[in-house]
Amino acid sequence: MGDPELVQLLTPEGDRIESAVGPDGTEYRVDFTDEEYRGLYRDLVLVRKLDAEATALQRQGELGLWASLLGQEAAQVGSGRALRTQDMAFPTYREHGVLYCRGIDPIMPLSLFRGVDQGGWDPNEFKFNMYTIVIGAQTLHATGYAMGVNIDGRTGSDDGEAVIAYFGDGATSQGDVNEAFVWAGVFNAPLVFFCQNNQYAISQPLEKQTRIPLYQRAAGFGFPGVRVDGNDVLASYAVTRTALDNARHGQGPSLIEAYTYRMGAHTTSDDPTRYRIASEVESWQAKDPIARMKAFLVKQQLADDTFFAEVDEQARREAVDLRERVLAMPDPEPVSMFDHVYPNGSPLLDQQRAQFSRYMESFEGSAH
Amino acid sequence: MATETLTLGKALNAGLRRALENDPKVVIMGEDVGKLGGVFRITDGLQKDFGDQRVIDTPLAESGIIGTAVGLAIRGYRPVCEIQFDGFVYPAYDQIVSQVAKMHYRSRGKLNIPIVIRIPFGGGIGAVEHHSESPEAYFAHTAGLKVVSCASPQDAYVMIQQAIASEDPVVFLEPKRRYWEKGPVDLDAPLDGAYPLHSARVARTGTDVTVLAYGPMVRTCLDAATAAAEDGRQLEVIDLRSVSPLDLSSAYESVRRTGRCVVVHEAPGNLGLGAEIAARVTEECFYSLESPVLRVTGFDTPYPAARVEEEYLPDLDRVLDAVDRTFGW
User: Which keywords does the record carry (chain B) (predicted)?
Assistant: First the structure.
């Protein structure tokens, strides 16, 4: 049945584990069709390819910054696909894989990192809130949203609503995250705290944030915690789906620690060679989430070379399309900076907008 | 019902009650707001009548109050948050300035965050430290927030309802030392057609000096005007009501007549509202001014121990002293 400290359904070698048991005795398993297994593989490959394209665009000066999800694809696709249509997600700034699973155009976060806007999708349409860069702040938003689900009486059945809050290992040191834990427990919020422990908060390793395994923190707040192999898309799916369904049925919050590794830099501005050694990265390379899924599909004869080539080709096409659309993205009109500061507007801004417009018009016809 | 005499605190309570009645999406949340009715009893009796899902006693964490209110707002609720005292708002500062204030902007208008953050503010009640502060400039400096303060029971009753009905996030500053002052309140006053939330109002007409104030200092300035009248000087007192955005149209009109302007607030003077107001009045009324715009404010110290707060706070005499000095140029 495996290690109760780490729920795993797919080994790094691509071998299936029939079921796994969490620390509280919950049994986890998945029952996917062949097509669904292939679909998860496709998601993983596409998400990684689009992410790599974004990193390349940043290196070529087309994005101001990029926060790569490299290495965390399984945690994001697994949890993202576990969400039901009615569930709401509150991401950090690295959840490009979850965003993809929610059906949002993958160009959306690129416009943010290009500096064209600050997040263009409609959070309520896609049930995926805006990216949040201040560490941990979104966990309270998720908690409040989940309180609203309770007030609306939208839990207690199969079609009840659940909420998921994404955050990282560093965020667990933040006051907001701990307040969110307190609140969610006190109000029995239908909420899943999904912590991607990628081992580093920029340069700081996990031991700078905690003396105990993160999933064990949940006990102190009065709800279940479980650690899942975050490089195992099947286990990530199973654990998240169970936690979400418990929440939607009125059983309150839980914490998932998805144990994974940030294979790349914190962002394109970071240089991880200053604070971690190559052998550590190599040891995690051997646990790669996509390689193990591919090994599983091959061993089980669920996919052949034609399929893998077709997925690679789709990823290549989508990446090219993404690149072309990023390059064609127009800069916003400068005067648009005055829009949407207030729903009801402001006389001060009206005045500043008018002054700015007159100032800009004063250059018309000049060489400058 | 019509007009009753109420304290400012009771008027706020009546306004909150009416907001809860009129809109099922309004929820009140904060520390001790339910069973206790708030430490100042502003939410007295509301949980009993509207239930604990609409008047929510929260855990003791200010960032949590505001942060969860953001989530409730995204869900479609209109949270009215109580921060127990001015000096306790700072743990929520990130949620207010980085989340509440910016979410509408960042989403290009797709999300509204119609939160009201009620804060009893200012000194004069003999409190221990962190219970007497005037943090309005921090919030007025933040784009995306609106900041208002009521000075009378009637305004308290109407303005709290207007703030709740507004799609803008509003920091609602309550002059705690005026909670017990009484005045007439028209409880049937309709919100439609009410005096606008973000407009200043002339509280007393005069011809010699324009005095601008908001919140607890309006009463002080009206008292100063009464005293000045005995000496033959007519002060025009304007209750600014809205700290952000500032409505200075009536102030400009007034200063053009009087040629003299004094701004009064409890908050420290350095980079306070008075500085902004003085700059704008000077720009707009430059040729009408007989003297510089003067400020009467708290000092640039931490709020002092209560036994000296009377000396720290602007009072009638310091307002009159500044009025006198405007005649010295």
Answer: Oxidoreductase, Thiamine pyrophosphate
Give chain B's mean pLDDT: 97
**Same domain for A342 and A257?**
no
Contact residues for B242 (Cβ-Cβ < 8 A; gap 6+): B146, B147, B148, B197, B198, B199, B200, B214
- Does B246 contact A at CB distance below 8 Å? yes
Which residues are paired to B298 by β-bridges?
B268
Which tens digit of pLDDT belongs to each residue from B156-167?
A: 999 999 999 999
Interface contact B76, partner A, CB < 8 A: yes
Q: What pLDDT, on a 0 to 100 scale, did the predictor assign at position A3?
A: 67
Say what percent of chain B tops pLDDT 70.
100
pTM over 0.90: yes
Nearest CB to A120: which of B75, B108, B144? B108
Q: Indicate whether A344 and A265 sit together in one domain.
A: no
pLDDT value at A250 more than 70 = yes
Poorest-pLDDT segment among A64-78, A111-125, B92-106: A111-125
d(CA A283, CA A128): 33
Average confidence (pLDDT) over A194-204: 97
Q: What is the pLDDT of residue B189?
A: 87
Which residues is B212 bridged to in the sheet?
Answer: B238, B263
The answer to whether position A113 is within a domain reads yes
- Tell me, yes or no, whether A225 and A356 share the same domain: no
Cα(A268)–Cα(A266) distance, integer angstroms: 7
The verdict on A285 and A361 lying in the same domain is no
ipTM field: 0.96
What chain B residue is nearest to A175 in terms of C-alpha separation?
B63
Known active-site residue A37: no
Structure tokens at A159: 């079609």
Tell me, yes or no, whether A345 and A197 share the same domain. Answer: no
Considering its fold, how many domains does chain A have in total?
2
Question: Is A128 a member of any domain?
Answer: yes
Domain coverage including residue A347: 337-368
B67 closest CB neighbour out of A148, A176, A344: A176
Instruction: Tell whether A270 and A292 lie within a shared domain.
Output: yes
* Pairwise CB contact (< 8 Å): B74 & A339: no
Give the end-to-end CA distance of chain B in Å, rounded to a whole number: 52
Separation in Å, CA of B60 to nearest CA in chain A: 9
User: Which pLDDT tens digit goes with each residue over A20-38?
Assistant: 999 999 999 999 999 999 9
Same domain, A265 and A361: no
**Domains of chain B by range and CATH?**
3-186 (3.40.50.970), 201-326 (3.40.50.920)
Does residue A322 sit in the same domain as residue A341?
no
User: What pLDDT is attached to residue B1?
Assistant: 61
* pLDDT bracket for residue A365 (50, 70, 90): confident
In a domain, A180, yes or no: yes
Cα gap B75→B27, rounded to integer Å: 12
Q: Residues A147, B68: contact at Cβ < 8 Å? A: yes
